[in-house]
Amino acid sequence: MTRKVGIVSYALEGFYGEAKMSSDELVFTAVSSALRKAGIGRDRIDAVAVSSVDAYDGITISNGLTAPAAGGYEKDATRIQGGGVAAILSAYASIMSGSAELAVVAGGDAVQYDDDAISNASYDVHFNRGSGINNIQSYALVATSLLDQGVATEDDFALLAAKNYRAGTTNRHAHIKSGYSRKDVASSPMVAWPLRSLEIAPVSKGAAALVLASEKAAKELTRNPLWITGIAGGSNTCSGSWRDLLEMKGLRKAIGAAYDMAGVGNPIADIDVFELYTPAAPLELAYYELLGLCEKGKASTLLKNGIKSSGREIEVHPYGIKVHDRGIAINPSGGALCTNPGNCGGIYRAASVLEYLEKHDQARRGVVQDSDINLGFMGETYHVMILEKETR
Amino acid sequence: MEKKAAIISVGMTKFTSCRRETRSRAELAFAAVKEALTNAGLELKDIDASVYTSVDGFEATVRPARTLEALGQGLNIPLIDVNTGGSAGGSGIKEAVHLIEAGVHDIVLVYGSPTFNSVVDNQQVLNTASPPIFEKPFGIGAVHMGAFYLTRYMRDHDLPEESWADVAAKNHRAAVRNPYAHLRKGPTSAEIMASPMITSPIRLLECCPTSSGAVAMIFASEKRAKELCDTPVWVRAMSSISDTFLSGFKTYRGFDKLKILAQKVYKAAGIKNPRKEIDVAELFNPFAGFELLEYEAVGFCEEGGARRLLEEHVTDVGGDLPVNMSGGVVCTNSGISASVIRHAEVALQLMGKAEGRQVKSPSVGLAHSWGGNLGQFHTLAVLTL
């Protein structure tokens, strides 16, 4: 490939439990801010990719509302439903194909909705939906698998949630900044065994926007663009993945392809920050192994003690933001437990990695892991993106 | 453009009424995808990524792609889920083309398989696409959206109502020759004029049916296309355009945004005189009369000249520029499939595989899709041999 794509600007609006603006107003606010930061007007934008799901907006073809607000009037505009990083992939492909030089990726969440009902409606109507299954129950099934296979304990789940809540206290954009302790989490009400209420993400409102640019445009607009050096997807079957929920073959495929594309051989040595989509605390433990951060079954050890990496001689410590000088930050934003907008979550996670890389000179490369598991497991899709400060 | 993308194969089911459909979304999708793969000499494992297009509400579910497991997810390949309303098929194809041109993938499957049989009244679903506070309460549905444009056109160009019936009859005659079309009875202009008025000036037989069925297309990079297909159809240029959401202040004077899009796409494709250079077209016409407005927007004639083009049979079988030889959307509206089909039909024409409806040796085709509240979105593609 002769072209490459950078992210030259980002902006976040929110996040909170109840929006004070409509979704188009939120998107407009975030996109306007991102364009101002990039020093460009809407006229420079060639393409717009909106990330949303109709049900989360309460109307059908809801990108009709948000695409113009994202700068899409009389532009090449589309809407992707599989999460924010899937929308970033759309804009990335537009630029790499030569169809666009500058593209906006945006999403907004404003409408109050019944998360359980929307999740249930995404399951197969004949075999699954009637059981009443929803996203939280599917997270509980994954958590149960972690317990069954001896990967983690219920106490680990609380410890992990507390780690994320602590990180959220330092994130000005976070929806939940309460900093709940391990004890708070462990004593919160049981929702779907083994998940307690403070181990499950809230539903957040707000908006997120990015401006993507070709190499030429990026170098014109900023001295420090962050390049997308890896981006890939994968998916799971709606019934096949019941067989082993921890297999997550689609996520494995996405991680492997993104790492290959970016030339990541040893993630412990090569990556400085991860933002993972973990709408229930135990999922983060399931992902450590898949991301190559620990050996099979060692996620709990990683959480509690960190591990030594022969490649880098550093301590891998998921309490990242406190020890970033020598460790890898995992969900320094506080993750989805602190901020979980359904439409723009993947864009928010990308912005969080961008912000981390901007603030930490020694950090060079970050991973954004995204999916549509806000609707639940089984039939889910994944996308993984790698962002870098320098050209490799 | 870094790389070229081509259509190498098409698969399609026969379309029928949503009320008569007995096949599920997955069965329909499987049939279309299997045919497309077989035609290309490929297996499912050869696909790098799949693009699914839908409007969730029409299927009474959320993200129907999540439950279509036979079609790629079984191999854990990337799934791109695109929804831009009626234009989602065009938008999905644009995603596939960009992914190939960008060098991300070599072989991409695009498909849609709406049944429309899961909801009681699709118009209620569509009504929620209107601006919720200012416009939705008027009860606007699809046919009203069409009537605004056609009413204005009749006033501006002193067009007789019979012209809408004439263009509808042209489409219905074409559908008789298309074995996949839903409505194949071929009513005459007089019969169409005698059909009930739905929303002035649109009569029943000028309205699309609600069809059920699936279509699949396989796109490939230049190298793979040349290996796999004797007659690859190249995507020479493709783009989309968005209008505003609020519609109350629009003038409805033709499809002005399509005109802007056409100029952009023609420039990218190097087309200077579309009337002369384009050999065959599929234009999105859920209401038959749209086709006349689209002739003007895509530059087939000057403003107000569409009726003459129709009367001179330029866009009919045997004309210089046959349009909607499939019978168009007015004879088969399978929602999202309908916007994929516009591209599939043009590709089949260029490949010389449009059984029953083949026109003579076309080499350049135009495919259009339309969707969203009052036609907020258009996509347009120039396809060539």
Task: Give a structural overview.
The complex is a heterodimer of chains A (392) and B (385). In chain A, the strands form 3 sheets. In chain A, strands 3-2-4-7-1-8-14-13-9-12 form a 10-stranded mixed sheet, sandwiched between helices. A two-stranded antiparallel sheet of chain A has the order 5-6. In chain A, strands 10-11 form a two-stranded antiparallel ribbon. Chain A is globular, with a radius of gyration of 19 Å. In chain A, α1 (23-38) packs parallel to α3 and α12 packs across α13. Chain A folds into 2 domains: 5-113 and 203-221, 3-Layer(aba) Sandwich (Peroxisomal Thiolase, Chain A, domain 1), CATH 3.40.47; 132-202 and 228-392, Thiolase/Chalcone synthase (Peroxisomal Thiolase, Chain A, domain 1, 3-Layer(aba) Sandwich). With 392 residues, chain A is α/β, with parallel strands linked by helices. Chain A has 15 helices and 14 strands. Chain A has helices at 23-38, 54-57, 63-72, 84-96, 115-121, 135-148, 154-168, 182-186, 215-221, 249-262, 267-270, 282-290, 299-305, 335-338, 345-359, and strands at residues 5-16, 47-51, 76-80, 102-109, 190-192, 195-196, 205-214, 226-235, 273-275, 307-308, 315-316, 329-330, 365-371, 381-388. In chain B, a hairpin with a 5-residue loop joins β12 and β13. In chain B, α2 crosses α13. Chain B folds into 2 domains: 5-120 and 211-233, Thiolase/Chalcone synthase (Peroxisomal Thiolase, Chain A, domain 1); 122-209 and 235-384, Thiolase/Chalcone synthase (Peroxisomal Thiolase, Chain A, domain 1, 3-Layer(aba) Sandwich), CATH 3.40.47.10. Chain B has 13 helices and 13 strands. Chain B has 385 residues and is of the alpha+beta class. A 9-stranded mixed sheet of chain B has the order 4-3-5-9-1-10-13-12-11, sandwiched between helices. Chain B has a two-stranded antiparallel sheet with strand order 2-8. The mean pLDDT of chain B is 93. The interface between A and B is large, with 68 and 59 residues.
